[in-house]
Each structure stands twice: as structure tokens, then as C-alpha cells.
Amino acid sequence: MFKNHPKGLIPAALANMGERFGFYIMMAILTLFLMSKFNLDGEEAGYYYSIFYCSIYILALAGGYIADKTKQYKGTIIAGLLVMTLGYALLAIPALITTKFIALGALLVIAFGNGLFKGNLQAVVGQLYDDPKYSSRRDAGFQIFYMFINIGACIAPFIAVWVRNTFVKMQGFAYNADLPGMCHKFLGGKLTDAKDIDQFQELATKVSDGVAQTDLTAFAQNYLDAFNTGFHYAFSAAIVAMLISLTIFLISKKSLPDPAKKATLATVISKEEVKQSAQEIKQRILALFAVFGIVIFFWFSFHQNGLTLTMFAKDYTRLSIGSLELSAEIFQSINPFVVVFLTPVVMWIFGAMAKRGKEPSTPKKIGIGMGIAALAYIVMVVASIGLPNYGDITSSLPDAERVTPLVLFSVYFILTVAELFISPLGLAFVSKVAPAHLQGLMQGCWLGATAVGNGALFLGAIMYEQSSLVLTWGVFATVCFISMGVMFCMVKWLEKVAK
After folding, report:
1. Rg of the chain's alpha carbons, rounded to an integer?
2. Which residue of 320, 346, 358, 381 is surrounded by the most CB atoms within 10 Å?
3. What pLDDT sits at residue 262?
4. Within a 10 A sphere around the Cβ of 304, how many other Cβ atoms?
5. Measured distance CA(146)–CA(451) in Å, rounded
6. Which of 499, 491, 496 is nearest to 360 (CA)?
7. How far apart are CA 411 and CA 416, in angstroms?
8. CA 165/CA 173 separation, integer angstroms
9. What's the pLDDT band for 195 if we cut at 50, 70, 90?
10. What pLDDT, in 10s, does the model give residues 224-278?
11. What domains appear along the chain, each with residue ranges and CATH number?
12. Which region holds residue 366: left if phi is over 0, alpha if psi is between -120 and 50, else beta?
């Protein structure tokens, strides 16, 4: 699988792997942390989640601009790692994060660091494949890169949950996904129905090792404090990951190319070549922005995995399987696991098709990916038929009325297959088509398109809490199907530009 690839690929992937480990620790718990820590409903948590996720990618434009202007790509990457480490350190201090606005400030520090880091490292990886000896392996190279960076993400949700639950256990309690919300309702005087209070009392006794809790007010305060502090300490694991990523990059940076050198060489051309390249550059930029417009809708749908799909895991999914108690955050580990284990399979399939001259072009693969993403939400539509609307649930659904965890396993699996057709191949497309002097900026624009999709994530939370589940998932399926159709309409033009 690694044959005929440049030597710098693995060090670059390992440097990104640590960063992704820290990032997925945070994303696994962010929505539920905001809801539990600050007593937010899903809609308000969705706003903050959208702002943060949008900022991560829109600031990649700033990171790309800074690197392109200063020509210090590697220095910008190092600065990004340091800034992200600072942001995670802020989130790990319970006494500091006292309001949702301070929490948002810490998240924006992480977002700025990510903007300095992410697009520029991708530009460096793209440079590895500008050598004619490796150019035909560009798609496969980005698939390997994408697989490696997801290895850390595989275990990140488990680490986050383990740290949180271990601290909760040290305080004399057990984990329960429903209790933080019920604690807030009880303390706010919104848990008034006798049946709901009895259920709260039963759960309080259960998580207290069978010891009846006579003072439910004290229990609610103590449980929330243990639960939320455990979340804070989970963020600290991301700090370790960032420092590992920084160390790897510092050790390997001399073996990695510098996009600034290619941009400098690209200016040494004749007047005739300047005229030709100006026309070509225009077409290349138009093609890139056409693809950016399509992937907006993929990320709008895909990144519901940390918002509405996580809320669905908490509210509608059976988390108790015999003696095994699942955490709502655990489902987020499915995505990186599937990326790691399916990437070699997808590469083999594309390789076999290439030998027969039948491998789809990158634009066709992206279109196929949009169709696959739509299928994931069709599964959610079918699974949600007959479930009560979120607004009609007063406390907690009994297990008998919840769906099997296999629903979310299936949905995350399908979405990840779609991601393998879109994200790594999209990165390869950008690195191939982007003009030499705009490598960092165009990678930033790819992430900027992701930012636009992420900026609309909160709409999912609004639909989830204020309309039917079937309508919510149906919207995501529809936008993915429409995007697939538009992409296939542009395939011939995009293939011509990419030659």
C-alpha cells in the first residue's frame, strides 16, 4: 500500500494524527458538555457547535493567507499546534470555564490554531506529489494520509469517555446519559410530574451504587459537578496529543517540501507562459469553487454526527445492552474506525479499476459520495418512523421505545463510506488543480467551504427539537441527492480542467 509513495507522506500523516486525536476527543464530548455544563437545550448548543465548527474551517482561509504571504508554511504549522495546545489547556481548567462565553472563547482559540495548521499541512502533502514520479499516486496518497490521521481518532472518543467516567466514579457515581438533563430540570423546578420524579429518584439510586438519595437537590448538584468536571479533565488528554504531534513535526520537518519554493519557481516563466497560465488559472479557480459549492452540503449533513446524531443517541437509542452500558459519545468512534479499515479496501478497488482503465475520475467519485451520504439519512428516516417528536418527550424514553444501536452503527458506517469518496479525494483534487502560488489559500478555501456547511449545522438542531424526526433526516437526504445530481452535471468540465 505504501509502495511508490514519497518518504515524507508518513511523517506528515503522523504529525496530523496527533492533532486529530486531540480534536476528536473534544468533538466526541463537545455538544453534551455544553448542554450539561451550561444547561443548554439542543438548539442553543447547536448554535455554539456551529460557530465553533464553522470557525475551525473559515479560519483556515486566514491560515492559508498568512502562509502564502509570509512563505513560512512550516512555521505557520508549528504556530498552529502551539495555539491549539493553549486552547485545550484553557478548556481543561474547570475554575476558568465559568460561562458559555468563556468556553466559546477557548474554542475559538483552538479554531484559530487549527486554521493555521490544517490547510497548510495539506498543502505540504500536496507538494509531495508534484514530482512526476509520484503524480499518478496523488489520490492514493491522500487516502493513506486520511487513513493515518484517523487512527488517533479511533480511540479518542473512548479516551474522552474513560476519563470523564473515571472521574465520575471517583466521586461515588456511575455514568448515565439521561441524568444531567434531569438534574437541571429538577433544580430548575421543571420536573414536577410524580412519575418523572420517581424515575429521577430511581436513576439517582442506581448511579449511587444502590444507595437511596434522600436529598435529591444535593444529589443533582453533586452529580452535575462530577459529570462536568470529568468533561474538563477529558479535554486535558488532547494537550498530550498536541505535544506529540508537535514533536513529530519538528523532527520530520526538514524532510518535507516547502510550498513556498514551488511558488517562487513558478514566477520564473516567459511572457507567453504568463498569458497562458492566466487563462488556465481562471478555469482552475472556477472549477475549484464549483466543487467547494457542492461539498458545503456534504459537510452540512456529515457533521451532524457530533450534533443531532449524538442527540439522537442520547434521546432515542438504547444504550443498555444487558450488563453493558454504552455512552452516547462512543458512536463517534465508528467514523474513524471505518476510515482506517476501509481505506485499504477502497484503494484496492480503485487500483483494480485503474488497471482495467475503468477507475472513475475524482469528480465522479465525489458525486457518488454525495449519493451514498443521502442513503445514510434514508436509513434514519426509516428508523425514525413511529418515534415521538423530541418536544413530546417529558423526561426519558424507556428502553423498550428506543431504537437499537445498530441503527446508528449503520448510519455512521454509510456516512464514512461517503466521506472516503469525498474528503481525501477532494483534498487531492484541490492540490492538483490549485495554482502553484495559491496552494495554501485554495486548501484554505476547501476548508472554508466546509466552514459554510458547518455554519448551518444549527439548523439541524432546530429541526430536531421543533419538527418531526422524519422531516429532519429527510432534509439531509434531499440536499445530498440534489448535490449529487449537480456534481454529475459538471463532471465533464471538471475532468477537462483537472487534466
Report:
1. 23
2. 346
3. 56
4. 27
5. 19
6. 491
7. 9
8. 9
9. confident
10. 999 999 999 999 988 988 998 899 889 888 878 776 665 554 444 444 445 446 7
11. 9-253+268-498 (1.20.1250.20)
12. alpha
Flag whether pLDDT at 406 surpasses 80. Answer: yes
Q: 182 CB contacts (<8 Å, ≥6 apart)?
A: 191, 196, 199, 200, 203, 220, 395, 396
CB 304 within 8 A of CB 460: yes
Question: What 3-state DSSP class applies to 247?
Answer: helix
Residue carrying the nine cell digits 445492552:
321
Q: Which residues contact 314 (CB under 8 A, 6 or more apart)?
A: 32, 177, 178, 328
324 grid coordinates: 453493558
Left, alpha or beta for 389 (phi > 0: left; psi -120 to 50: alpha)?
beta
Q: What is the mean pLDDT of the chain?
A: 85
Contacts of 133 by beta carbon, 8 Å cutoff, 6+ apart: none
Report pLDDT for 308: 93
pLDDT at 132 > cutoff 80: no
- Nearest to 123, CA basis, from 79, 83, 65, 81: 65
Q: Answer whether 410's CB lies under 8 Å from 379's CB.
A: yes
| C-alpha closest to that of 337 among 235, 427, 231, 417 | 417
E strands, 168-229, are none
Q: For residue 82, what are the CA distances in angstroms to 19, 88, 244, 383?
A: 11, 10, 11, 43
Give the three-class secondary structure for 499. coil
Q: Look at phi and psi of residue 4 and say left if phi exceeds 0, alpha if psi is from -120 to 50, else beta.
A: left
State residue 438's pLDDT score: 74
Query: CB–CB of 332/24 below 8 Å?
Result: yes
pLDDT recorded at residue 58: 81
Closest CA to 35 of 165, 171, 182: 182
Sign of the CA dihedral running 371, 377, 383, 387:
negative
- The pLDDT score that the predictor gives to residue 106 is 95
Q: In the prediction, which pLDDT does 109 show?
A: 95
